[in-house]
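thread: overnight batch results

M.L. [08:02]
morning all. the overnight job finished for the chain we discussed friday. pasting input first so we're all looking at the same thing
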Amino acid sequence: MSDERQISGRLIAAARALTGISKADFAEVAGLPLAMIGIMESGGSALLRSGPDIEAVSRALEKLGVIIVDESDGMGAGVRLKFTRQDVRQIARWKVRAESSAPMMRHSLNTVTSNHGHAVGGICR
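M.L. [08:03]
and the structure it wrote out:
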């Protein structure tokens, strides 16, 4: 993700809706307090200003397979998936489980999400 990424609360909410991830699960993946996610989303179209918050949200979006589509050609910003919805939900479940699993499991999941939907052991296409 770009260091100059512009992320708003509406984009976070749209990304969560698209992936079917709750605020609590998103907060966990982002490593941010649940209350902070609520504050960000309640800001609506206001852009996030805190560098660490932008980085945490960007990493979470990347882990969940969400791509931010920037404004262009008179159309607003939005989000889309780089994986299918089912893949995103499965990856999110694996990520949460991997936090308490062996290092090899965490490595395998990072490989899946870093290959941007390409076939990895038959998991994603």
